[in-house]
């Protein structure tokens, strides 16, 4: 059994996955803050969700594609201080793609033609799941720079977070596909070009004249960058499979996100990735037990009908600011009783689901349901600490 | 909104799009309509919610007047080729699937047109009173509903181009088509909803039929009860109250407070959403759905659909 503290003691990568809306981004940021305050590491949090409040919590007006260092000044009202360094960035797909093209283009002419191609923008948006590829590529770039000891990645909000892990492989497959070779014939492959002719004819009938040819032209240019892309994709894949890379699956204790988390964990296993941590977020605080709440609800229901009791308590509570009337007190007591009872239903439901969360990873941590959204660094510190304890 | 022919249900991942889509479908059935429910991402969430076996591309009636299907680009292509080009043999040519995937990845709007085309085709055929689409999350919907127009600009001639015209007529008619944007009372879901409505209004001519805020926690206290609760909760009163009612009263108050906090936060986010939408063209329906997230799937859909029925009647 490992603790969250041990997880962040290691150097390497932490990939945070989970269904949408479970608090993945906050958990990622909180892990980053915990690492940078408990250790002397150089920590980077890479996120895909542009939550403004989260950026604000990190003392930034917005997150951008380039990494920004969080200043120690941000911690001036906190008991916890930075011991290492903390940087954050948001993955901007378009900007990252442009950087990639600039890096891999063999010459300036190719670079400019690709960047100005009308197909390019559209392509980078959808082919080979480019958002996902870019996320891992960006991660690799940060890792390879050697500027960070620990990188925490909040994965893209795709419903199937696995596509990011398959992205490097898909990129390699894409370049080696027979179809790409057929469509982008080099001078040595005239025969194959001939073979592609029927394809063009069918495509023209199906799609409209010349469309496929335009596409092929674009890919001919794109292929000149093959070596760089394929090598890079291979490196990214290796990094994901490195023993220093940990996977964390976040879920809330609700049916749908949990089913998604279980699916995710199984699929990770199939790809030989190990889910090192399961994190249950927004758990009803432990001190609220069903037994205590039910007992209290019973007491409240009994006492609220006791006129002597309510009038006495009402007069005790009445102060210069608030005049409390016995019947209103009785109603309020009934509401509290109902609410305590309703909370026990949520607790039961959550308890029943907790075992399922614990089952899909060797290690388990949880964070309580918060009364407010995380709005400042203290919120992130508190979330990190509760993860560490829970 | 259920009087339209085609509804796209979208929103940020995790807000409950499938649940809302399934519940709207049930509500439409309850109004006496014949409904087709279509899942776009073949993830199987709908069949699970509706407690039925895996769905296919061919609509299947899963309960009286409710049919369901799952979208599949390959099948949509085959159908498109068969119906519109009247040359079904082409679809059987080996390698076509591969070539199609390749082009569709590159050319703007090809995949989307096939998918949206299939939905519009169901509307045109008129076998159903309404087609409800459990659409993809916010990132894709604008490209999807705008696809016929995008493609028309990109491929000036050819059969696909001609086919896009009648699709646009269905999609851009607010009597027929609408997008339903689902959000929850969370910062990111609300922001995505605002951004999405802005994008739909600026980049497409497709009408936004409704905003649905899902999982709104109910109000805990009335205003006058709030005053009493505040007094009970005061530090100086706590020990007195504990002595009179029992030491566990603290826990009951804490549980109640958690509920109050969730409700307050939700109210804050809902007003933020309303403010964001106020700057845009008005949207006809703004619905708040209660939080049933701790219910089992079947109960959840039943409760939400009765809620929607009441709201929409």
Characterize the structure shown:
- The complex is a heterodimer of chains A (390) and B (313).
- With 390 residues, chain A is of the alpha/beta class.
- Chain A has 2 domains: 4-106 and 129-167 and 226-286 and 352-389, P-loop containing nucleotide triphosphate hydrolases (Rossmann fold), CATH 3.40.50.300; 290-351.
- Chain A is 58% helix and 13% strand.
- Chain A contains 17 helices and 8 strands.
- Chain A has helices at residues 4-9, 24-38, 52-57, 93-104, 108-116, 118-126, 130-144, 163-176, 178-183, 190-207, 211-223, 226-241, 255-270, 290-304, 307-317, 326-359, 377-389; strands spanning 12-18, 42-47, 68-69, 85-90, 150-154, 245-252, 275-283, 363-368.
- Chain A has an 8-stranded mixed beta sheet, sandwiched between helices.
- In chain A, helix 2 packs across helix 17, helix 14 (290-304) packs antiparallel against helix 16 (326-359) and helix 15 packs across helix 16 (326-359).
- The radius of gyration of chain A is 27 Å and the shape is elongated.
- Chain A starts with a helix and ends with a helix.
- Residues 187-192 of chain A have low confidence and may be disordered.
- Chain B has 313 residues and is an alpha/beta fold.
- Chain B has one domain: P-loop containing nucleotide triphosphate hydrolases (Rossmann fold, 3-Layer(aba) Sandwich), CATH 3.40.50.300.
- Helices cover 55% and strands 15% of the residues of chain B.
- Chain B contains 12 helices and 8 strands.
- Chain B has helices spanning 17-30, 45-49, 73-84, 96-106, 110-125, 138-154, 159-171, 187-203, 223-233, 235-245, 249-278, 297-312, and strands spanning 6-11, 35-39, 60-63, 66-70, 130-134, 177-184, 208-216, 285-290.
- In chain B, strands 3-4-2-5-1-6-7-8 form an 8-stranded mixed beta sheet, with helices on both faces.
- In chain B, strand 6 (177-184), helix 8 and strand 7 form a beta-alpha-beta unit.
- In chain B, helix 5 (110-125) packs across helix 7 and helix 6 crosses helix 7 (159-171).
- The chains are: A alpha/beta (390), B alpha/beta (313).
- At the A-B interface, helix 6, helix 9, helix 10, helix 11 and helix 13 of A face helix 4, helix 7, helix 8, helix 9 and helix 10 of B.
